[in-house]
Specification:
Elements lengths: L2 H11 L9 E2 L17 E4 L5 E5 L5 E5 L10 E5 L6 E2 L2 H13 L3 E6 L14 H15 L1 H4 L6 E6 L1 H12 L18 E4 L12 H8 L5 H6 L13 E6 L8 H12 L4 E6 L17 H11 L7 E8 L8 E5 L6 E2 L18 E7 L5 E6 L7 E6 L9 E3 L12 E8 L4 E8 L19 E7 L9 E4 L5 E9 L2 E8 L8 E7 L20 E8 L2 E8 L4 E7 L6 E2 L11 E9 L3 H4 L1
Parallel strand pairs: 5-7, 5-8, 8-9, 9-10, 10-11
Antiparallel strand pairs: 1-4, 2-3, 3-6, 4-7, 12-13, 12-30, 13-14, 15-16, 16-17, 17-18, 19-20, 20-21, 21-22, 23-24, 24-25, 26-27, 27-28, 28-29
Length: 593
């Protein structure tokens, strides 16, 4: 191993301990380089002595900014700062952008590419492209080391850096140096911000053109590096940003590239802003300041970043003795237990001190409110609140059926928040001896439930308990959601004679009812209980416990009329039982893990 190779290994080895350390791009020597004693790299600094830019680059480097492991999503971006191919605005259009990408879970690599010059290059027109190709190959080759997906590595460039990014996107197969042919230099996507695209007079940025191609370039060179003319169907999907009042790099550059992408049926998105001029970086003022968020949405659409929220499922195991458990999912289909299935909160209230059927919602106060079943035969429920789902308030026992003589049980409580009134409705199933004898069965201990409720604004004072739903049959496990201007109740028909044991729906214009007659079953030919629902990508998904099968199932619908059984598409941790699905900020996930 030669000395330069040794230095590269040292750099890679220390990455785990000190990211943002420059990595030499060509440890074995820059291809086509000319030694010059007078061409020396220099830097400029702001008033705080922070580097602003660099010029006369002849030794290219990559500076990695690795996303925190707790939010990293496997995507990566190589950043090419602009500067007219004479210098690099390496802080504004490099380091700052890398740090912003890190907040999205994207790892970034700032490329300090060479300035094309005859002083240090035998062919200055290919120098920057050599650097961009090698940067892409280096990152892709070391994808596992960086904990990134080799199929999700993109290129992002500003101004002349946008020209380099579009050059890589259209010339990734050009053989401009000897390399490992098994590693592709093609970006998986590209982001071009006020990019130089064309070398055509009147459209190009003359300074960039002159620096890269010289004073009298041939027509062949002009065409070759007018990258809109080089787009093919294999050019990567592209996101473009430009301001209409850009006088340095006319907006026609982005328009030409976008039109060419469309012509070749390449996925593309163009954001044209009324003003902003040239060089606004991550955005200055006005509408151009929105482009990073627009890019984030594009990343989401292309599965390059994770959503800001994850899906959480609160549940119990066994009989509920050990308390609260959580699972999470990125897509609502594949669920993974958190903390290897350990309990987050041990029950301490009620006759039996159980924590069954834990229902959690986020309230109008921003806190998470939880209610649960504490006992088989108690007249109340458990309640606690949390800011982060990990640290919970002192548990309270709320005797919601305390004044209802003959109450046998208080099961499966849930909460729905009515934001229009700032009111929480707590509701549950109870059997009261002697009530509704026409639907009482001799089976299953004679339980004959109806839904009851109370409301509160502060979980300190509560309205008198009332009947919420009396559908003319034994009903349990209701879960209510607001949709448009209506409320939807998913419920279990608990009738055993003749057998039902399935999930149905009812509707109301008001949270407290009255609710409509129950629908036909939406679950299949199996016993189901404990429905909990959420909307994902325009579909309602209702999860429920197929408790005789010791498995969880689900049905999905786009219109609440036609339901598809998707039980074979969902997977849950073994032993998971009746709980609630809800969204939570991704920022809470590290604490939950």
């Amino acid at each position: 191993m030669n000395f330069k190779s040794f230095l590269l290994v040292v750099c890679f080895t220390t990455l785990g301990f000190s990211q943002q350390k420059e990595i030499t791009l060509w440890p074995d020597g820059v291809p086509g380089s000319i030694q010059s004693d007078t061409y020396e790299e220099s830097a400029t600094y702001d008033e705080l002595e922070v580097v602003r830019g660099v010029s006369k680059v002849s030794q290219p480097t990559l500076t990695p900014f690795l996303a925190d492991a707790s939010i990293a999503n496997g995507s990566a971006v190589i950043i090419c700062p602009g500067g007219g191919y004479t210098h690099l605005a390496i802080n504004k259009e490099g380091y700052k952008v890398a740090k912003w990408l890190n907040t999205l879970g994207i790892s970034a690599f700032v490329l300090k590419y060479r300035m094309p010059t005859d002083e240090t290059m035998t062919d200055k027109t290919v120098g920057p492209l050599q650097d961009a190709q090698e940067a892409m190959r280096m990152v892709r080759k070391n994808a596992k080391r960086y904990n990134i997906d080799a199929s999700k590595i993109g290129i992002l460039g500003f101004s002349a850096g946008g020209h380099l990014a579009s050059t890589l996107s259209t010339h990734f197969n050009d053989k401009v140096y000897e390399h490992d042919a098994s590693i592709s230099a093609r970006p998986d996507f590209s982001v071009l911000v006020y990019p130089v695209i064309s070398m055509k007079e009147g459209v190009t940025h003359e300074g960039s053109k002159r620096s890269l191609l010289g004073n009298n370039p041939s027509e062949e060179l002009l065409k070759k590096y007018s990258n809109a003319l080089q787009v093919t169907s294999n050019t990567p999907p592209t996101f473009l940003v430009h301001a209409s009042d850009d006088t340095a790099v006319p907006v026609e550059n982005s328009l030409e590239y976008y039109d060419s992408l469309k012509k070749h049926k390449v996925s593309a998105e163009l954001h044209m802003y009324e003003n902003g001029g040239h060089g606004f970086g991550l955005g200055v003022s006005g509408t151009n300041a929105n482009w990073p968020n627009d890019l984030k949405q594009w990343f989401l659409a292309h599965d390059l970043v994770k959503k800001d929220e994850v899906y959480i499922f609160s549940y119990f195991v066994g009989n509920g003795e050990d308390g609260l458990h959580f699972a999470y999912s990125e897509d609502g289909y594949s669920w993974e237990s958190l903390r290897n299935g350990a309990s987050y909160l041990t029950p301490s209230v009620g006759k039996d001190k159980l924590m069954r059927d834990p229902c959690i919602i986020k309230g109008g106060d921003g806190k998470y409110h939880m209610v649960w079943t504490v006992s088989w035969t108690d007249k109340g429920i458990g309640y606690a609140t949390s800011n982060d789902l990990v640290n919970w308030s002192t548990q309270q026992f709320i005797p919601v059926m305390g004044k209802m003589a003959g109450t046998r049980n208080t099961w499966a409580p849930e909460i729905t928040y009515d934001d229009a009134r700032g009111v929480y409705m707590i509701y549950w199933a109870s059997t009261i001896e002697g009530k509704y004898p026409e639907t009482k069965s001799k089976k299953e201990n004679g339980y004959n439930h109806r839904m009851y409720y109370t409301t509160t604004k502060d979980f300190k004072t509560f309205t008198d308990t009332k009947v919420l739903y009396e559908p003319g049959f034994n009903v349990i496990d209701s879960s209510i959601y607001k949709w448009d201007d209506k409320f939807i109740m998913f419920l279990k028909d608990e009738t055993v004679e003749p057998e039902q044991k399935n999930i149905k729906m009812a509707f109301s214009d008001n949270l407290e009812g009255p609710y409509s007659q129950a629908s036909n079953p939406i679950s299949g030919d199996y016993w189901a209980e404990g429905p909990t629902a959420i909307r994902i990508d325009g579909k309602w998904i209702v999860y429920f416990d197929k408790y005789k099968n010791h498995a969880y199932g689900a049905v999905a619908s786009s219109d609440l009329k036609n339901w598809e059984d998707i039980s074979d598409q969902v997977s849950f941790p073994v032993g998971l039982r009746h709980g609630t699905v809800f969204k939570a900020p991704r920022s809470l996930l590290p604490g939950l893990k």
